[in-house]
C-alpha cells in the first residue's frame, strides 16, 4: 500500500504481529518496568501480626478511663518490646507494656498510648489520656490480606509493586519476554562518533537517539549497527539476525533517491512490503515490511523525522509485541500559547512543550533535519491537513512523548 494515513498504518502493523509468548522468571530486584506474566496472590497478611504504629505503651483501654493530666492513671510496666521482638505475655488489667514502632502488640492489649502522653515511666507509667479500644492499633492484614490479588497478569511492574512483593517475602517473579530489537542505521555519509570526521561526512545521531529512547522504555536493542549504502550488505545482515530478533528498526534509505536502497534490500530478501509512505510530515517515506514473519520498520534518516515516526509508528508495534499498553502513544488536548503561521498542506507534527494544559514552542526551528530544537520538548502537535495557521488560544491535539 502506498501513501496511507497514520491510523491505517498503525492498524496494518498491529494486525500483522503477535504478542510475544515467551516468559521468564527473574529476580524481583530486576522487575521494575517489566510486564507480569501471571496473577500474583498474597501468600500472607501484611502486617503479619497486630502491631504498634508508634512508640508508647500497649495497654487495656478500660484502664485509661477518665485519664488526663489532672486525673493521672498509673499502670505497672511489666515488659518492653522492641521492633522485631515479641512477648508471650497476656496483658492483665492494671498492666502496660513499653512498645516501639512496628513491634507486635501483646495479647490482652487493645490499644497503644503514644509516649508523649505519658511520663515515659520504666517500672510504672503515668497515663495522661483516655483511649478507646484499638486506638493507635494496626491490625494484621491491614495493608494486604492473604490471598489478595497483588499483581494482575499484564500489569506493568513499578517500584511500588517491587516493595509490595518484597514485603510478602517474594524474591522472584514471572514476567513476559522483552522484545529483542535489531537497530540498523544506514548511510555512506554517516560516521561513527569518536572517529575523525571526513569531508562530506556527518556524525551519526540516529543510533544513539533511538537506542537511548528504547532504553527509556526498558527495551535494550540486542543489535545496534551502522551499515553503509549497500543493499547486499544490509540484506545479508538482516538475513543473519532475523531469527534472533522480534523487530528490526532501520533508518535511512527509504525515499526515492539513488542511495535509498531499502527497496532493493526488500527485493533481495523477498520480503513482503506492507506499506510505503505515510501521509504525515516529517517522515513521509516510512516503510513497513515482514520478513520471515518478523516486522521491519524502516524510518527516514533525518533525525527528527526518525524520532517522530518512531514515536507514532514504532511505539504501537512495541506495545503489541511486549504486551505493555503504556508504550502506546498518548494523545491529549491542549491550548496554544504561541502562533505557527505556516500552512500545512499535509498532516504535520511539530515539536513543542506541554504544561498544565498549555502548549508552547521552545524554539522556532522545525526542520526535520534539526534535532537540537527538540531538547526539552515533551509533545508533538498534531496539525491537520489544510490548516492555514495555529493561533494563540486554539484547541489542539498533541501526542505526549
UniProtKB/TrEMBL annotation:
UniProt-listed Pfam families: MoCF_biosynth (PF00994), MoeA_C (PF03454), MoeA_N (PF03453)
EC number assigned by the record: 2.10.1.1
Record InterPro entries: MoaB/Mog-like_dom_sf, MoaB/Mog_dom, MoeA-like, MoeA_C_domain_IV, MoeA_C_domain_IV_sf, MoeA_linker/N, MoeA_linker/N_sf
MoaB/Mog domain location: 182-320
SUPFAM superfamilies listed in its UniProt record: MoeA C-terminal domain-like, MoeA N-terminal region -like, Molybdenum cofactor biosynthesis proteins
Pathway the protein takes part in: Cofactor biosynthesis; molybdopterin biosynthesis
Gene: moeA
Name of the featured protein: Molybdopterin molybdenumtransferase
Family affiliation: Belongs to the MoeA family.
Enzyme class: transferase
PANTHER family: GEPHYRIN, MOLYBDOPTERIN BIOSYNTHESIS PROTEIN
NCBIfam families found in the cross-reference section: Glp_gephyrin, molyb_syn
Keyword annotations of the record: Magnesium, Metal-binding, Molybdenum, Molybdenum cofactor biosynthesis, Transferase
Highest rank taxon of the organism: Bacteria
Reactions that this protein is recorded to catalyse: adenylyl-molybdopterin + molybdate = Mo-molybdopterin + AMP + H(+)
Cofactor: Mg(2+)
Function: Catalyzes the insertion of molybdate into adenylated molybdopterin with the concomitant release of AMP.
Amino acid at each position: 500500500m502506498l501513501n496511507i494515513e497514520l491510523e491505517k498504518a498503525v492498524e496494518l502493523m498491529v494486525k500483522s504481529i503477535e504478542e510475544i509468548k515467551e516468559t521468564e522468571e527473574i529476580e524481583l530486584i530486576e522487575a521494575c518496568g517489566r510486564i507480569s506474566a501471571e496473577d500474583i496472590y498474597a501468600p500472607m497478611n501484611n502486617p503479619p501480626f497486630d502491631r504498634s504504629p508508634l512508640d508508647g505503651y500497649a495497654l487495656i483501654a478500660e484502664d485509661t478511663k477518665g485519664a488526663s493530666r489532672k486525673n493521672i492513671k498509673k499502670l505497672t510496666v511489666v515488659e518492653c518490646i522492641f521492633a522485631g521482638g515479641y512477648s508471650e505475655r497476656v496483658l492483665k488489667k492494671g498492666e502496660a507494656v513499653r512498645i516501639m514502632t512496628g513491634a507486635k502488640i501483646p495479647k490482652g492489649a487493645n490499644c497503644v498510648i503514644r509516649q508523649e502522653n505519658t511520663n515515659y515511666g520504666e517500672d510504672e507509667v503515668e497515663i495522661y489520656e483516655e483511649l478507646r479500644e484499638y486506638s493507635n492499633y494496626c491490625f494484621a492484614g491491614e495493608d494486604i490480606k492473604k490471598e489478595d490479588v497483588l499483581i494482575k497478569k499484564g500489569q506493568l511492574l513499578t517500584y511500588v509493586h517491587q516493595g509490595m512483593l518484597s514485603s510478602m517475602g517474594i524474591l522472584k517473579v514471572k514476567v513476559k519476554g522483552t522484545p529483542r530489537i535489531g537497530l540498523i542505521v544506514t548511510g555512506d555519509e554517516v560516521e561513527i562518533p569518536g572517529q575523525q570526521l571526513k569531508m562530506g561526512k556527518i556524525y551519526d545521531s540516529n543510533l544513539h537517539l533511538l537506542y537511548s529512547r528504547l532504553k527509556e522504555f526498558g527495551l535494550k536493542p540486542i543489535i545496534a549497527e551502522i551499515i553503509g549504502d549497500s543493499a547486499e550488505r544490509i540484506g545479508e545482515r538482516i538475513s543473519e539476525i532475523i531469527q534472533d530478533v522480534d523487530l528490526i528498526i532501520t533508518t535511512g534509505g527509504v525515499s526515492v533517491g539513488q542511495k535509498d536502497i531499502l527497496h532493493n534490500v526488500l527485493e533481495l530478501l523477498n520480503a513482503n512490503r506492507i506499506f510505503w509512505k505515510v501521509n504525515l510530515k516529517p517522515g513521509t517515506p516510512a516503510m513497513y515490511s515482514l520478513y520471515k514473519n518478523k516486522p521491519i520498520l524502516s524510518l527516514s534518516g533525518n533525525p527528527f523525522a526518525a524520532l517522530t515516526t518512531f514515536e507514532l509508528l514504532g511505539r504501537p508495534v512495541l506495545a503489541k509485541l511486549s504486551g505493555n499498553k503504556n508504550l502506546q502513544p498518548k494523545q491529549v488536548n491542549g491550548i496554544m500559547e504561541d502562533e505557527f503561521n505556516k500552512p500545512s498542506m499535509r498532516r504535520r507534527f511539530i515539536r513543542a512543550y506541554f504544561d498544565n494544559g498549555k502548549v508552547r514552542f521552545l524554539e522556532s526551528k522545525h526542520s526535520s533535519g534539526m534535532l537540537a530544537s527538540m531538547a526539552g520538548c515533551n509533545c508533538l502537535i498534531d496539525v491537520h491537513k489544510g490548516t492555514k495557521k495555529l493561533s494563540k488560544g486554539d484547541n489542539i491535539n498533541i501526542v505526549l512523548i
